[in-house]
Amino acid sequence: METPSATTHRGHILHGFLLAVSLSTFWNTLTTAQLTIESVPTNAAEGKDVLLLVHNLPGNLAAYGWYKGDRVDPDQQIALHVIERLEIIPGPLYSGRERMYPNGSLLLQKVTQEDTGYYTLQVINKNFHSEVGTGQLCIYKPVAQPSIQASNITVTEQKDVVVLTCLTNDTGISIQWFFYNQSLRLTERMKLSHENHTLTIDPITREDAGDYQCEVSNPVTSIKSDFITLAVSCE
User: Which domains does the chain have, with CATH numbers?
Assistant: First the structure.
């Protein structure tokens, strides 16, 4: 049985041979539709599986290889599939979470944020014509539940100012405010800070009494805070 280092070395040799041959015949461009890669889903949550789905895969293939990054780089190779030998040769970046399919697609299992980035597929047919396609993978952490901090929750109408702050440690998020579980409609007395972290009501009126929430979201998850209730009294 070969050692992992020997297997990786074989992958580099075979890759180098195929790449050299393909470069020597670079003027023979493929006439098929352009090779493209689609991330399914487009945005993925950390810990889930993601498929890099290949479209317009040429026929009569001899081999194909996947690379991390936006170009063909042997040091960034994930794996090489030699079709006639039904052999998959792990590359330097193979982690054991990858699965290659006959249609060229690559499944990444239990993705982490470190998997975010570009991925490149190189296909080489039996006439030594080479084609390359690149796709992008975006991984996001699920957001945590935020909380609301209030300057005061028992206030006097037409006298007090209330500042509600949505507290969260997540980054790259959107924030939305809710009143009685409905999207908050801003009045002329309400003002949102940059990126909606803070809601200021000046002055407060009885119409503003009730339950408030903030919601944080990113492309894959969203979650609301618990309710905070403003009580408004007359002077």
Answer: 4-140 (2.60.40.10), 147-233 (2.60.40.10)
